[in-house]
Amino acid sequence: MRGSEPSIAGMAGTVGRLGDLLRVAVAGVLLVGGRQMSLGEEWPSAFLWLSVGYFGAAVALAVLRPLRLRRAGAWVTAAVLLDVAALTGVMTVSGGFRSGLVPFLYLAVGGASLVVSRRLAAFYAALVALALLGENLWRTWVGGGPSDTYLVGLSGAGAFAVALAAQAVGERLRRAEASIRAQQETLAWQREINDRILRELRDGVLVIDDEDVVRYASQPLRQWLGREPVGERVEEVLPGVDRLLARRGGERWVAVQGRRLRCRATVPYRGGGWLAFVSDLEEVSREFERNKLASLGTLVGGVAHEVRNPLAAVVQALELMRGEENAAARERLLAMALDNAERIERLVEDVLSLGRRQRPRPEVLDLSAWLRQWRREALARLGRGEEEVVLEGEEGLRIRADPVHLRHILDNLLDNAAHFASRRAGAIRVCTRAEGERVRLDVCDDGPGPAPQVRERLFEPFVSSRADGTGLGLYVARTLARANQGEVEWVDAGCFRVWLPREGP
User: Tens digits of per-residue pLDDT, 135-148?
Assistant: First the structure.
């Protein structure tokens, strides 16, 4: 029966308390005014003892309420048994069915049925019906003037109707209560989330009611003001910020506690109140400077690390050349110095490209014609044959991009491909294709592609799987592509893809 026990919280608790009060009231009326209502005339002494016992038991049930929290269903059943037994006993000594106490039995059964299962409600109704029939049979047996059996049976059936109707109402109320509780929990959760978001916001938020009184202030704003502004008028908190500013949707600068705050007010929300958003732009600027310095420190540290090794190799080669008399050895040392000097030059060029990434000067380019010119220059620079680097794709594609940036993007991708590609014909393919409003440009080689350990970090600065790589080529390529409203991504194996905006005819 554990599943049928009612919860003492919420509606069940309220019904239980009202039931206790009503039981004490009925028992008190029977004890004090029962004789005036012509009750107990057939057996006055028994009526007195029944009234006193019923009143005492009712008071005990009300007083012992805290002990009824664990087994609420059992206590409800005990209360119904008490009501049925006491009221049936009073009926027995007061003329039976004609005493007029049947509605009190209905009241006891109906109140209990509100908080129990349908099975228990039917059980309580059966108790009342059996009590009425039993009392009437007892009167028949002792010759005490029994009531009409038909009326008694009809009253017993009425107990079932009252119990089942009350149980249905109680079930509906419990569902409504559960729905309200779930909504309250959801609202509490949403309120907690909103409070957490407001606490984490860098901007301050003020909620102002229809009388221009602050009703809520977020944590950053309380820190800037140095106090809790809730309850103050908004003009005392942020001078010059008012409802007119909110209606215009404008902003105003306010000096508070040595800070210059930018205040933006919204149009009034439903209910007459309005909102004000406050930003400390000086703090934002300081945070930006800190981040910029941190990024600069990371860049300088990476550049210093990448320059140190080739520079040391150049110095060492020059030192060895000073005392070397063998011409062949001097040539090898000179070649080593030149290779490392070129590596330093590439690193410097990549770093300088980062400085140019935010200043694109886009032009409309015929991609096929532009790629043919770029290919001729790239082949000469790399020392590759024409058959090794193949151009494929659609003719007449037009893109909008900075030609200097585009050259640097493709140079970096081609240098990367040339490092891993073989010397066979078609080892490197540059393919173009239009897809919607963008152009796809693939640079692929027949090499194994990036090493597995660096594939997740390909576009991070100073990450490279090449022994002589600077780790900036792919990072610069993606940065320049994004500056031109494009993107660079690794597709598979030795294939990288560039997306660029397409220019219509």
Answer: 778 777 876 666 67
